[in-house]
Amino acid sequence: MKKKLNLGFIILSASLLIGILSRMRAATILENFLLAAIEPDTLKLVGSILLIYLLGNLLSEGGNLRNINSSLEAFIKDRRVTLILPSALIGLLPVVAGAMISAPIVEDSGNKMGLSGEDKTFLNYWFRHIWEYTWPLYPGLILASTIFSVPLYRIVLSQLPLTLSAIAAGCIFGLMRLPCASSPKREKGKAIKGIYGFLLNAWPILAIILFVLVLKIELILSLLIIVLLVIATTRLKREKFLFILKKSLSWRVCLLVVSVMIFKRVLEVSGILSVLSELFNRMGVSPLFPLFFLPLLVGLLTGVTQAFVGISFPLLSPFIGMSDPNLTYAMLAYAGGFTGVLLSPFHLCLVVTREYFKADLGQLYRRLIMPISFVVSVAFIVVFLKTFFGG
C-alpha cells in the first residue's frame, strides 16, 4: 500500500485543486507552478537532499558505519549502551528503512542479553529516530527551514528539547529496564585504537556539525565539500560508485520536494491562508489544537516526515507566521507530526523491523506510548514556558 502512494503527485493535485477552487486562471496556475519549481530555494533544497542521500549511501556502502560501531565498542564498557549504538549511529544518516541496517547488530547483542523480540524492536526503532528532530541532514528539517525562510541552525536549536527528551525517554523506558552488564575489561591500547578508528570513520559526520552548526556554512555548500572529500578518500570501483550514484538520484524525492514548494506558493497566492486564519479565529479554536493535531494526522496517514512538514506547515503558517515565524509553535507542530510518523502503520522502519524481530505489534505500540507521551509532554511544557515567561 505504501509503495502505491506517490506523495509528490498527490501534493501537486492538491495544489491544482486549490488553484481551481480559488478561481485562479489556468495561465496563473501554470505560472506559479513554474516559478515555484525554478526558484533558488527550491533548487538548493533539491540539491541538498540529493547530496544527503549520496553521502548516506557512500558511508553505508563504504563500511564507515560498521567501523564506527566496532570502534565505539572498543572503549565503551556498558553493554546496554553498545546495544543501542548501532541504531543511534545509523540514525545520523537519513537512509530509507535505516533501522534494518542496524537490526542484525542489535539482534546479535540482544540475544546475548536474552532480550525479547519486542525489546529489540523497540530499542532499535526508538534510538534510530532520536536525531530526526534536530540532525541537520534530515529532509524534514531542511524543508521546514526553507518553508519558513529561517537558517537551519535556528530550527535545530529550537527543537533541541525534543531530541534531548527522546534520548531521556529511550533511557528511562528502554535501557533502564535492562539488566546492567559490563563488557570484559579491555586493554588500554585497544581503547586508544578504538578512538582513532572512530575519528577516522566518523569525520564526515563530525564535519557536518562543524560546518553547519558551528561555522554556519550553508548546508548545500557544506555537503558538496564533504561529499567530494569522501569520494576522493574512498577507494571505490567505478561500477560501485555508479551504483551508489544511481541509488541516490531519486526522481520521487525530487518530485516530492518540488511539489511541496509549489503547494506552499499556491497557498500563498490563492489567499486561502487568510481565510483559514479568519475561520479559526471565529471558531475560537486554540492555535495549539491545529498546530499539534494537523501534522499528527498527516504523519499518521503517510508515515513520512517530509509529507507532514510539506503539507501541514504551509497550512499552519497563519499561526506560526512567515516573516517572523514562531519557532516554538513550529517545534510543537514537528513534535505532533513526528508522533504520527512513529505510530504510523505505513512507516517503513516500523514495518520491516517488527517483521525482522518477529515482534507483536500490539505489545510494541504499548511500549511506544510512554516514551512518545514523554516527548510530547516536554514539547507542550516548552510552549507554555515560552508563552508565559517569554524568551
UniProtKB/TrEMBL annotation:
A Pfam family matched in the record: DUF401
Bilayer-spanning residue ranges: 42-60, 81-106, 195-213, 219-237, 287-315, 327-348, 368-389
Keywords: Membrane, Transmembrane, Transmembrane helix
InterPro entries on file: DUF401
Protein name stated in the entry: DUF401 family protein
Species the sequence originates in: Aerophobetes bacterium
